[in-house]
Write a structure and sequence with these properties.
two-stranded antiparallel sheet; mainly alpha; 4 strands; 5% strand; globular; single chain; two-stranded antiparallel ribbon; 157 residues
Length: 157
């Protein structure tokens, strides 16, 4: 969620035609046109941050672990959905490779935390889904011809 400096969360997007933008990169937009977008990459960043806090800090609480498990349950059902991606392109939702990688990170970090702290969960299910994400990234997000990852996972290769 994006908030204004005075705390409001409704920031309709506007285009400022009178501004050129960095090196002529018009249009210049202000507001929050991304407020309603699905961006799956954020879960990897979130879970990795919690993992690092749990590893190097005081450890997460029982309530936080339960919340993370609930979020992970949702993610395991939705990771393969098209999303807006980290770059919030205006071309509609796609199956972004980076989003898949960050979903893999989210699942992997939960598995690590459960193992390191003996926390309850369903690591068997988590590992199976983590492996599905991995295989999709490698099978559909890697271009053998170009020797690089693609921006979008392609269903058929």
């Amino acid at each position: 969620m994006l908030y204004s400096i005075d705390g409001h969360d409704e920031l309709p997007e506007q285009i400022l035609d009178h501004w050129e933008g960095y090196r002529g990169s018009a249009p210049v937009r202000v507001g929050n046109g991304a407020a309603d977008q699905l961006q799956l990459d954020i879960y990897g960043e979130l879970f990795d941050s919690v993992y690092l806090f749990n590893k190097h800090g005081a450890g997460i609480s029982h309530e936080s672990w339960r919340d993370l498990c609930a979020i992970l349950d949702w993610l395991l059902e939705h990771w393969d959905s098209p999303d807006a991606g980290i770059w919030e392109t205006r071309g509609g939702q796609q199956r972004h490779t980076y989003s898949r990688v960050m979903c893999w990170v989210a699942v992997e970090r939960m598995i690590r935390m459960a193992r390191q702290r003996g926390l309850p969960g369903d690591p068997g299910r988590w590992m199976a889904e983590r492996d599905r994400i991995y295989h999709q990234i490698m099978d559909q997000g890697w271009s053998a011809q170009d020797q690089t990852f693609t921006s979008v996972c392609m269903r058929s290769r």
